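Issue 218. Parser rejects a valid record. Input:
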Amino acid sequence: MVSEEVMAMVEAGKMLPLMEEFYTIQGEGFHKGTAAYFIRVGGCDVGCHWCDVKESWDANIHPPTHVDEIVQNAAKYSDTIVVTGGEPLTWDMAPLTSGLKSRNLQTHIETSGAYDLTGEWDWICLSPKKNKLPVQEIYPLAHELKVIVYNKHDFIFAEEQAAKVSKDCILYLQPEWSVRDKMIPMIVDYVMKDPKWKVSLQTHKYLNIP
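Output the parser choked on:
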């Protein structure tokens, strides 16, 4: 059972429910193909039915880990650190990014934007979800917008979201993995008709790496 002291540290962002951490190749979006250290934080109530890491949803099954330990591990492997989830902004990210920045590390986040942005980020990948829309404040701060396409109606959602980000934000359409064979031709056709969009694929799955 987690003590009240530990719970208080988690609420303050000084400890985080760490699901996993690993060094790999970024598989998606603008930085695909580059080496990065991933920190996957537990806890998410957005509830996408096609989520491929549902085991991340329940923060209680992932051990509270001090951010100093997380930073120390990350600094051994890469200059680029990607914080993902779950939904990492469930928690206060300021202590984690402060520690990473003290080591001169690049901080990237992958988020639905459903909660207020905390922490200091060099790159924000906003991947909005219909179940729980982003807070308005994050849209102008996003460096890339990545919309997961599960069916044809998601193109409408993608355009609604693209209208809210800055003109410099890079726009991606990414097929949901389980329906990729069906959706990739539709996405390719869409991007060719409207080249403000780019195609994002989960290349790490094709490479058979984490």
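Fixed in the parser; the record now loads. The beta strands are 15-25, 35-41, 64-66, 80-84, 106-111, 123-126, 144-149, 170-175, 197-199.
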